[in-house]
Design a protein that fits this description.
This protein has 206 residues and is of the alpha/beta class. It has 8 helices and 6 strands. Helices cover 47% and strands 14% of the residues. Strand 2, helix 4 and strand 3 form a beta-alpha-beta unit. The chain is globular, with a radius of gyration of 30 Å.
Amino acid sequence: MVIWLLIPALTLAFNFGNPKEKPSMEEALRIVSEIKDDVSTDITEKNFDELIRNSKDPWFVYFYHPESVKCTFYSPQWKFFSEEVKEKGYKLNTGKVNMEKNMRLVVRLEVQNYPAFLYFVDGQYYNYTGPNDDMTLPSVHLEKLYLQYDHKPIPFRAPKEKPILDKVKDFVLGNTVYVAIGGAVVLFVAVFGLLKAFRKNKPKTE
C-alpha cells in the first residue's frame, strides 16, 4: 500500500538485477504512472471557490506537474494517503491540482514549486513544506502540524484579463490629455519649420 515500498524495489532491480532484464527508467515511470488517483478530488480554477474557499471543512491539496519525474513517482503516495483519510473517517478532504492546466490558480495561490502541499482551513491556507511520507501526512491534519508553516488568507478570484481591444480603448481614453499635448507639439514644430523655411527663401528688398 505504501509507494515507498515500490520505489526501493525498482531501485534494487536497477542495481542488482540481471542487466538484460532490469527495467529502464522509462519502464519504471510507466509502471508508477499506471497507478491512477481516483480517490482525491481534482481541483480546478472553476471549482476551487465552490469546493475549497466556501468549505467549512479543511482541505489538504497536492499540487503537481504532469511532466515532473518527482511528481510522477510521488502521485501514487497521495492516492494511498487519500484512501487512508476516507477509510479512517478523518474530517478532511483531499484534492490535487494539475499545475499545467490551472496556471491561474497556481498564480493566485502563489505556488512556486512542485510538488507542493497546501492545507486550507478557516479562510487561510498553509504552505506545508515538511515531510510528505505516509507516516507524517496524517499528522499534518490530526496533530495540526500545518500551524508551524507560513499561511495567508485565501485570495479572491483573480480578475479576468480584458480583451486586447478593451485594453487599447482604456489606454486611449485614459491618455487623451497626453495625446492632445503630443498633437499640439507636433503642430507647433511643423508651423515653426514652415516659417523658418519661408523667411530663409524670402527675396530681399532694396
